[in-house]
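Write out structure tokens for Type II/III secretion system secretin-like domain-containing protein.
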Amino acid sequence: LTLKIKSQIGEGGSVRMVVYQENSSVVPGSSGTQGPTLDKSAIETSVVVDDGDIIVLGGLLKDEYTDGDDGVPGLSRIPVLGNLFSSKSRKRVKTNLMVFLRPMVLRTA
């Protein structure tokens, strides 16, 4: 996860922020001469808020599917009868990354 924030304090205590958020991960089973393949999603936004207000960044969605095979060694490979000794599964994981930011202006005495 990468989070880059550029902020400016405006008149009246408002805060202007440019926020860049990136989520990347290595794709399973991807290997080649160029190196691993990355799955990357990113957003960039600009927002003006008052001091102490909360900003919610969302929208980085990710769907992952995983297939699996389980079975009794040897018996699960028998043609036709092997289905009695094995099982197949498919798993879906859905992720929605949300980031909460609360800018605070620190004032010196």
